[in-house]
Write a structure and sequence with these properties.
The chain has 383 residues and is α/β, with parallel strands linked by helices. The protein contains twelve helices and ten strands. The protein has an eight-stranded mixed sheet, with helices on both faces. A two-stranded parallel sheet has the order 4-5.
Length: 383
């Protein structure tokens, strides 16, 4: 029997299943997109993508908006059928700039993740978790996978693709890899590529996990997990997500309640400063919800971020896109410096302004203070 396929190779039967799906808004759905050959030479024989949607796709499929999550984000951008709060409520929802009463909003869990898409913790063909066998995946690979999901939904082009941090890198890759499929591209708090310093911070995080006594080369499923390593990785990352002023103003040199950093019989007995307790808390929170191998896989995908690779100069690479761009940066960001956003904007055709989020906390301001750009987004992007 012959099965019709879309241009990306998704069986037509999957297209029919997606079109007739009546799962409520903000509920995780799953779609198999078939096998995926990877840029670095690896191969995934059967990839599943988890995603959530909000709103209604209009008859000509012109109102679809793809919102890309950041490094450890999930697909739950905003509330849906349940009251579970999303991670970008200021940006998306009824009446928000990305108005779910007007637009058909989609968020996809990245390949390599642990929120439903194929990743290191999911079964390989032999039924065992991929673990150490999971291949290197780049952001271009994840974009190719997402293009298949768009095909399955019958979306030939996006009204907009946008995201912050790694989500912004994913949006940028979409605009350059598939110029005929992205009409607007929002790149927030990230530049055209991961710099040497950003790769250095990322390597420290992945090494923290790999050196955990329970890591077992990545094959720890069914046994003790590398929780200490993952928590340490999160501590390292979180230092870059917040500004020096935020730490100083919020914590200073204060001791954690009931603890004494300068009173100890030995080095291992001293109490903690408040900032140490805070970082401990951030590490513990992530361990409860994230897989260590996925943290490595996605972090290395972000290391691969380079929109220029194989495309000439930055201007030549960006010239391939026909999208209207919205560029924004956080003024206190010390992970993805505003200068990188300005470099990206300057290389784009025409005059592209860099909108500034004023947030004393640093990089994470792209999440907490995105509401500052509501007017600019409504006037220049979602008019």
């Amino acid at each position: 029997m012959t099965i019709a396929v879309t241009r990306s190779g998704v069986p037509e039967t999957n297209v029919h299943e997606v079109k007739t799906n009546t799962v409520p808004d903000g509920t995780v759905k799953f779609l198999s997109i078939g096998s995926l050959d990877l840029e670095a030479g690896g191969h995934l024989p059967d990839v599943t993508l988890a995603y959530e949607t909000w709103g209604t796709l209009n008859p000509d499929r012109s109102n679809a908006v793809l919102v890309q999550h950041a490094l450890t984000g999930s697909t739950h951008v905003t509330r849906g059928a349940s009251d579970e709060e999303g991670w970008w409520e200021q940006l998306a929802g009824p009446g928000a700039p990305v108005d779910t009463d007007k637009y058909f909003v989609i968020s996809i869990n990245i390949v390599g993740g642990c929120y439903g898409s194929t990743g290191p913790s999911t079964p390989a063909p032999d039924g065992k978790p991929w673990g150490s066998r999971f291949p290197l995946v780049t952001l271009r690979d994840t974009t190719a996978a997402e293009a298949r999901l768009a095909d399955a939904l019958g979306i030939g082009s996006w009204y907009a693709v946008l995201g912050g941090s790694m989500g912004g890198a994913r949006a940028l890759e979409w605009a350059v890899s598939y110029p005929d499929r992205v009409r607007r591209c929002g790149v927030i708090s990230i530049g055209a590529s991961s710099t040497a310093e950003q790769i250095a911070f990322a390597q420290a995080q992945t090494l923290a996990i790999r050196q955990d006594v329970n890591f077992n080369g990545g094959d720890y499923y069914g046994g003790p997990e590398p929780e200490a390593g993952l928590a340490l990785a999160r501590r390292i990352a979180h230092i870059t997500y917040r500004s020096a002023n935020e730490f100083e103003t919020r914590f200073g040199r204060s001791a954690q309640g009931g603890e004494a950093p300068l009173q100890a019989v030995s080095l291992g007995d001293r109490g903690r400063y408040q900032v140490e307790s805070y970082l401990d808390h951030q590490g513990t929170k992530l361990v409860r919800r994230f897989d260590a191998n996925s943290y490595i896989a996605i972090t290395e995908a972000l290391m691969s971020h380079d929109v220029v690779r194989g495309r000439g100069s930055l201007k030549e690479a960006l010239a391939q896109s026909t999208a209207e761009f919205f560029i924004a940066a956080v003024d206190t960001d010390r992970l993805y410096f505003p200068a990188q956003s300005h470099e990206l904007a300057a290389a784009l055709p025409g005059e592209v302004p860099v909108h500034v989020i004023e947030a004393p906390i640093g990089h994470d301001g792209f999440l907490t203070e995105i509401g500052q750009l509501n007017t600019q987004l409504r006037q220049n992007f979602f008019a």
